[in-house]
Fold this protein.
Amino acid sequence: MKHRGKKYTNSVKEFDRLKKYSLKDAVTIMLKDKYVKFDEAVDIAFNLGIDPKQSDQMVRGAAVLPHGLGKKVRVIVITKGEKVKEAEEAGADFVGLDELLAKINGGWFEFDKVVATPDVMGQVGKLGKVLGTRGLMPNPKLGTVTFDLKKAVTELKAGRTEFRVEKAGIVHATIGRVSFGGEKILDNAKALVDMIMKLKPQSSKGIYVKKMSMSSTMGHSIRIDVGDLKNFA
């Protein structure tokens, strides 16, 4: 639960919680809203007008953020043959097949993302429960099952945010840290919005983005005017 102290109470006066702001104004307010000393994460939430129970209305993907997420990302690549060298040259932290799979099966998890080539997914799939419960299972929709290892590793290292719609039609995603400043946060937010818009299911009827909000880890949730999204999506 978020702390509710005097500083929090005072910061709420900085904006109207019932008002909807442009994305740019929301970023400005959020930065003024800061009242804790640590570098908070910045999150955006979308309430989508879709039915997640329908397989053709699943919204899942990843957005490459121009300014990253503000942290080092450790990437391993599970592959074989000539692709091993490509992964190493792309900057992967660990590359291999049988040895890596054995280490993971033995409880080794000193990594943040997993990329695999399609030709080894049969072997990777055997660790589905081990990787899946930690959200580490490679997935074609996220671009982590691919032969284009250079692109996958480069994007993951640079920083990108992954998202998946929840049962209530809500998507949450992190777009950076408060220390980035307004311009970089706004750039990252635009990249996420652009990807969410591109992933609109064809079978989705009516309003696609019904609600949207932004917040820092300990800050207030600031409502965003979804009508403003057309200006840059």
